[in-house]
Amino acid sequence: MRTFAHRVRQIAPSATLAIDAQYKQMLSEGKDVVGFGAGEPDFDTPDNVKQAALAAMKKGQTKYTSVSGINELRDAIATKLKRENGVDCSRDNVVVSCGGKHALMNALYSVVNPGEEVILPVPYWVTYDEQIRLADGKAVLCPTEKLQIKAELVEKAITPKTKAIIINSPCNPTGAVIERAELKKIARLAADKEIFLLSDEVYEHFIYGDEEHLSPASLGDDIRQHTIIVNSVSKTYAMTGWRIGYTASTKELATLMGNLQSHQTSNPSSIAQWAAVEALNGPQDSVQMMKKAFDERRKSIVKRLNEMPNISCPMPAGAFYVFPDISRTGMTSSRFCERLLKEAGVAVVPGSAFGADGHIRLSYATSMEYIMKGMEKMEKFVKSL
Ligand code: PLP
Predict the structure, then answer these.
(1) Model confidence at 316, in pLDDT bands (50, 70, 90)?
(2) What pLDDT score does 7 carry?
(3) What is the pLDDT of residues 31-45, one digit of tens each?
(4) Measured from the CB, is residue 234 less than 6 Å from ligand 1?
(5) Cα 204 to ligand 1 centroid, rounded to whole Å
(6) Does the Cβ of 200 fall within 6 Å of ligand 1?
(7) Which of 9-18, 158-167, 280-289 has the least mean pLDDT?
(8) How high is the mean pLDDT of the chain?
(9) Most buried pick, 1, 95, 166, 336, via CB within 10 A?
(10) Which atom of ligand 1 is nearest to the CA of 98?
(11) pLDDT band, residue 24 (cuts 50/70/90)
């Protein structure tokens, strides 16, 4: 009997898929359902970005490009990193990939040897766990305190086998933004102990209130040498379908990741790369517009959730997710989500998919009207329990 590779057989199907499939099935049957599952802005890609893609096509910029991305985009990324993040780098530090997910995979494949450990604060975005496994590494789950990453807890998780620490701030699924002092301590630890710090900054522009994004790579030369920034244009510019992400790391690692990518995907879409140049270099007002809308929705959804019995929802500082605690309903998160969808027609993602049962994740990257409709349905359901 022929069997498939262990590599793919060990991957768990996304726990969100079952809910999503059910949601779509109900939609197609014409049922009145509201979905809070999607992790993408509901806004359209800005017009100037689309125009840049059209212009690239008209100019015949439709061929292979250099594997790690066109110079114009790598320069735009290096300039952005300096301008917005205070990170010194040049195009040679940058590898452009097919989305942030691919950038992350390049990074893990390039630093993790079989059996080496990667520290993953819980709750975590589920892809990290699977990608670490794909890279033959071992995820070491690290607890947080009230959903906040603490340097002390990260330090406790370090062993001689630790190769990398993943920090995702603002965080998917919780929306938490790491405290600056804690991030500084973790960055210092990584540099002193020669551990890579994978800093996933895809939600950096969606931080509300007074907090500001901090990229650890801006904290000093030795820290920068140990930091791999992962970012993408997907969330910032409502460009999830264009598939442009990138890493910024040392030149040595960038070369290795470029070599790896040369045998996997080659360059990302040339047209999407030109669109991303415009996104980064062009006007930034669409980002501010989305941020303002998300902020209003964030406050409304948190208020509505906290008015429901047995639900408590902290106010997230960033991203576009809320992560309420539903444990007082006495149900597991999967059971809660199944029943919420079946009985009330509201699709949300169980916290168990992110290593944190007792919670659910809702994305508020959807219209206020839709949010209010979903909240009404959910409230009725929770009151009926
Ligand atoms: N990192 C986090 C935390 C995410 O939530 C996502 C997408 O959901 C990504 C990275 C990757 O995004 P993309 O591959 O669309 O750039």
Answers:
(1) very high
(2) 87
(3) 999 999 888 899 999
(4) yes
(5) 12
(6) yes
(7) 9-18
(8) 96
(9) 95
(10) 14
(11) confident
Percent of the chain at pLDDT > 70 equals: 99
Q: Which of 130, 149, 231, 235 to mutate to test the pocket of ligand 1 (most atoms within 8 A of CB)?
A: 235
In one-letter notation, the amino acid at residue 304 is R
Compute how many other C-beta atoms are within 10 angstroms of the C-beta atom of residue 88. Answer: 13
Q: Which of 232, 267, 228, 243 is nearest to 112 (CA)?
A: 228
pTM beyond 0.85, yes or no: yes
**Taking phi first (over 0 means left), then psi (-120 to 50 degrees means alpha), and beta for anything else, what does residue 319 get?**
left
| Cβ of residue 172 lying under 6 Å from some atom of ligand 1 | yes
Counting from 1 in the atom list of ligand 1, the atom nearest the Cα of 103 is 14
For residues 8 and 266, give the distance between their C-alpha atoms in angstroms, rounded to a whole number: 22
Instruction: Please give the distance, rounded to the nearest whole angstrom, from the Cα atom of residue 295 to the centre of ligand 1.
Output: 20
Average pLDDT over residues 309-315: 97
202 pocket-lining for ligand 1 (C-beta < 6 Å): yes
Separation CA 49–CA 34 (nearest Å)? 30
Averaged pLDDT, 126-138? 95
For atom 3 of ligand 1, the residue with the nearest CA is 172
- Cα–Cα dist 260/217, whole Å: 23
Rounded Cα distance, 351 and 125, in Å = 10
- Whether the pLDDT of residue 9 is over 90: the answer is no
Q: Whose CA is nearest to atom 12 of ligand 1?
A: 100
Output the CA–CA distances (angstroms, integers) from residue 155 to 183, 239, 329, in the order listed.
12, 36, 34
H helix intervals, 282-367: 285-306, 333-339
Helix boundaries (H) for the chain: 6-9, 15-28, 47-58, 71-85, 100-111, 126-134, 151-157, 180-193, 221-226, 251-262, 270-281, 285-306, 333-339, 368-383
CA of 151 relative to ligand 1 center, distance in Å: 24
